[in-house]
Amino acid sequence: MNYARTLTLARQGRLYPAVILHGGGAAERAAAAGELARTLLCEAEPAARPCGECRHCRRLRWPETAVESSFHPDFHLLARDLKTATSAEATRQLLRQAQLAPFEARGQVFVVTEAESLSPEAGDALLKAIEEPGLGAPRHFLLLAPSRLDLPATLRSRSFALFLGPAEALSEEEIAPLASAFAQALRAREEGAGGLALLAAAAALGGAGGFEEARATRPFHLAAAAVARVAGDGELRPELRRALLDLAGELLVAAPWRLRGIPADRLLEGLVSRHLAPVRSR
Asked: What is the pLDDT of residue 8?
């Protein structure tokens, strides 16, 4: 389902109670959440929502800082309050508002801006609130994250996921040298270089740079694009192509492992070895 269809459901009051907005950049996710919130709270006729002119549309705006609150009493936003996580205490404080009736609008909207950072206890508290019936007025939870796979399976299973597209375009100038170095390491392995070639392949992907930032997803996406480029070589053996595509897919969702303290080079080596070591060389 695309974004336009999601807005239509929101206008009609048929939107799923919990929606994961993933993909795109942080600004795109915030803009999408803001428009959905206005649509859900707007008092205009359904087809005209969000009208941009009613009291709800005018008052609902995205806070510019984490400590600033929205002007609208039925729009609630939760930002990460700790260095690496969104705490259970902050989450429960937000969810206390879900136990109250709306102040002005016909419903309430709760936004978690970095849902991937929810602590296990915070995730459990949010899950309980999603599962509990409302007080008669609509309640909607918008969970923002780089990827829906960054969220616990329990939250994903109770939410509708809307993909907003790639975070940012990857240029040919970035992909081409990585793909070339990675392909060279694969050729060396095919010629009998063994495990050293796999280490070289992982090091080639590490050339994407930017892995120092533990929360960065772009380096992994760039590495995945390079692997996918090599997998497109029509002369590769089918079993090697399948392994490369599986590796590319896992690289796309590997970033959260950095938050567990795993160095990027060890993570890349482990993924490359897991997928390519079982594939015998020629």
From this structure: 93
